[in-house]
TrEMBL record:
Principal subcellular localization: membrane
Protein name, UniProt field: Amino acid transporter transmembrane domain-containing protein
Pfam families from the UniProt entry: Aa_trans
Organism this protein belongs to: Cladosporium halotolerans
Keywords: Membrane, Transmembrane, Transmembrane helix
Ranges of residues in domain Amino acid transporter transmembrane: 53-447
Coiled coil: none
Length: 472
């Protein structure tokens, strides 16, 4: 589709860009200051302004959707795979997800009516594709928000030295998530993303410095000489290797959120610059954290990684990261509830109004998502293995397959088939095939890992009061 201005034309940030092909509205709406959005309909002053995210705010929302749970498992993945394979696989995953993230933006510009990944599935594969991706999207975010609640409970246990029953901590995390996730627009949630991103970065870099200056990691033997046993190349079993790769995929598993963020941007044409900055920053952070923490901790690295420091630093790091984990939980609850809410009220006046139907529907969505996530967090209380399972079962399905199909859908019949076209077709076919392999093998590895964790240590029972933080 054509645009009146190019990306290099700088519009005032406070103006909302409306796709020309869909900017049709009545004179009455124009006089009221309303514009017609392809997703939200009439956006005016009387209801929530869903098109309020600038490109800088988009960067921090994208970063917070990425830098959260996944970064806490990167050092452990390096321990399984070895330093060199870990770095290489991380960079490959980063390159793939940067490309697929870019495709989301181009597909959104070509199809302005797209709000979520299910809309893209409907355009490509009809109703069956739409419903399949809708179910997968909801399950993915429900599991991620559940694992975020589990992470919060681990942090509260670590900071308080298991001050109360773990089930209570999970319930507290759920209650806080429900309250803040009920904020209606991403524009108003963006300040939380700033806080969360800063807290996560400060915490993990504190951990990184601590592991470099401490005598030995928390779980290492207390007596006798000690040296890190890090390896250039690991010797994992097939299941262990695939589970580790899946956890690296989840480190970039925020891509489905990119659809919603692009839809709520004032000008979606600035989306690409936000994605490139986000992906580059996340990759640098992951490599630094993974290399330094694994180098100094070796096989005694913990998952979540914040348990790798000593008792005092463990409490400090978890205290710093708790707001970040809460924001991760809040953001994922919000995005899942927003998807259900928009789909239920789309093409209705209640979507952008302050009516009783609007508020009742919105609060019911956030409550339902929170309750389901709470049940997942309490029912599968094994953090590392849960992260791997989510990354394998849903990460590739949400971050690889749909975006490769989206590019092929929009570019399968070019005017001329150049070498660049053949190269990009090959790359997207590789993403489809590689993602399918990882989906099957990674899920197998994660399931074996969960079974092994319960066999060796007994794990933690569902709705347990036991301390789920790393023992030190």
């Amino acid at each position: 589709m054509g645009h009146a201005k190019s990306l290099n034309d700088h519009e005032p940030e406070e103006e909302v860009f409306v796709e020309p092909a869909l900017a049709h509205h009545s004179p009455e709406a124009s006089q009221a200051g309303e514009v017609t959005d392809a997703v939200f309909g009439e956006v005016g002053a009387d209801g929530p302004n869903y098109r309020s995210v600038g490109w800088v705010a988009a960067i921090v929302l994208l970063l917070k959707s990425q830098i959260g749970l996944g970064v806490l498992s990167v050092p452990s993945a390096f321990n399984t795979l070895g330093m060199a394979p870990g770095i290489i696989i991380l960079i490959v995953v980063a390159a793939i997800t940067t490309w697929t993230g870019y495709v989301i933006g181009t597909f959104k510009l070509n199809h302005p009516e797209v709000y979520g990944i299910d809309d893209a599935g409907g355009i490509m594969f009809g109703r069956a594709g739409r419903e399949f991706l809708a179910i997968a999207f909801c399950l993915y975010w429900l599991f991620v928000s559940g694992s975020a609640m589990l992470g919060v409970s681990i942090g509260l246990n670590a900071v308080s030295a298991h001050g109360t029953c773990t089930a209570v901590f999970v319930a507290v995390a759920a209650a806080i998530g429900l309250i803040f996730a009920s904020i209606r627009t991403l524009g108003r949630v963006s300040w939380l993303a700033w806080v969360g991103t800063i807290c996560v970065l400060v915490s993990i870099f504190t951990l990184t410095i601590a592991t470099g200056v401490q005598d030995r990691p928390a779980d290492a033997p207390r007596e006798g000489p000690w040296a890190s046993d890090w390896k250039v190349v690991g010797n994992p079993t097939f299941a262990e290797a695939m589970s580790a790769v899946a956890s690296l995929v989840l480190a970039y598993g925020g891509l489905p959120a990119y659809f919603s963020i692009a839809s709520e941007m004032k000008d979606p044409r600035y989306y690409t610059r936000s994605v490139l900055f986000c992906q580059g920053t996340a990759t640098v952070v992951y490599i630094i954290i993974g290399v330094v923490v694994y180098y100094y901790c070796g096989s005694y690295v913990a998952s979540p990684a914040l348990g790798s420091a000593g008792v005092l630093l463990k409490k400090i790091c978890y205290g710093l990261v708790l707001p970040g984990l809460l924001v991760t939980e809040i953001l994922y609850i919000h995005l899942t509830a927003k998807y259900v809410f928009v789909r239920a009220l789309r093409n209705s006046k209640h979507l952008t109004s302050n009516s009783w139907v609007h508020w009742t529907s919105w609060l019911c969505c956030t409550l339902a998502v929170t309750i389901i996530s709470y049940c997942i967090a309490s029912g599968v209380p094994v953090f590392g293995e849960l992260v791997s399972l989510i990354g394998a079962l849903f990460g590739t399905l949400m971050c690889f397959h749909p975006m490769a199909c989206m590019w092929l859908f929009d570019n399968w019949k070019p005017k001329t088939r150049t070498l660049k076209w053949y190269f990009l077709v090959s790359c997207n076919l590789f993403i489809l095939i590689g993602g399918s392999y990882l989906l099957v093998s990674g899920t197998y590895g994660a399931v074996v890992g969960i079974e092994k964790a319960y066999t060796e240590s007994g794990g933690s029972a569902a709705w347990s009061c036991e301390d789920n933080s790393n023992s030190v």
